[in-house]
């Protein structure tokens, strides 16, 4: 089963990396660029066939390691 | 218009960050985790109404700054 995890910074938390990218794009002439937010994108191969259990385990992985839930949100998709 | 950009490491390129996360998950008891690949996820607000032009400009941003096309692939979605 393949899992795709998206980890994003919460809306009310500053994203200095996004601000830096926005500044770089402006300096390159891409003036139409407004707010930029940067997150992580993870693809995991899971050796399990039970979708319900996979969801529970994946939630635990996100809470414990993949996302810092104080400042980040996460969501995931399962396929296969 | 809102753009979402996904930057992923090409399939035949090593992903040490993914390997480290895989090792960490295994050491935490998540033994079902196979290959892990880590990429970037960007959300950009674009101040333009022309979808065609937005696509062209976004492609240029990816080629020039957002992705290192030697080792990374990118794809994007536009909405609004």
TrEMBL record, chains A, B:
Pfam family, one: PurS
Main localisation: cytoplasm
SUPFAM superfamilies assigned: PurS-like
Listed GO biological process terms: 'de novo' IMP biosynthetic process
Catalytic activity entry: N(2)-formyl-N(1)-(5-phospho-beta-D-ribosyl)glycinamide + L-glutamine + ATP + H2O = 2-formamido-N(1)-(5-O-phospho-beta-D-ribosyl)acetamidine + L-glutamate + ADP + phosphate + H(+)
A GO term from the CC aspect: cytoplasm
Pathway(s) where this gene product acts: Purine metabolism; IMP biosynthesis via de novo pathway; 5-amino-1-(5-phospho-D-ribosyl)imidazole from N(2)-formyl-N(1)-(5-phospho-D-ribosyl)glycinamide: step 1/2
UniProt keyword list: ATP-binding, Cytoplasm, Ligase, Nucleotide-binding, Purine biosynthesis
Any GO molecular function: ATP binding
InterPro entries in alphabetical order: PurS (IPR003850), PurS-like_sf (IPR036604)
EC number(s) recorded for this UniProt protein: 6.3.5.3
NCBIfam families linked: phosphoribosylformylglycinamidine synthase subunit PurS, PRK05974.1
Function (record text): Part of the phosphoribosylformylglycinamidine synthase complex involved in the purines biosynthetic pathway. Catalyzes the ATP-dependent conversion of formylglycinamide ribonucleotide (FGAR) and glutamine to yield formylglycinamidine ribonucleotide (FGAM) and glutamate. The FGAM synthase complex is composed of three subunits. PurQ produces an ammonia molecule by converting glutamine to glutamate. PurL transfers the ammonia molecule to FGAR to form FGAM in an ATP-dependent manner.
Protein name: Phosphoribosylformylglycinamidine synthase subunit PurS
Species of provenance: Paenibacillus darwinianus
Top-level taxonomy: Bacteria, Bacillati, Bacillota, Bacilli, Bacillales
């Amino acid at each position: 089963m393949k899992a795709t995890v998206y980890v994003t910074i919460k809306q009310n938390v500053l994203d200095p990396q996004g601000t830096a990218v926005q500044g770089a794009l402006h300096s390159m002439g891409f003036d139409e660029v407004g707010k930029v937010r940067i997150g992580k994108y993870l693809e995991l191969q899971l050796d399990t066939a039970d979708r319900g259990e996979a969801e529970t385990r994946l939630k635990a992985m996100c809470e414990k390691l993949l996302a810092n839930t104080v400042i980040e949100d996460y969501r995931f998709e399962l396929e296969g």
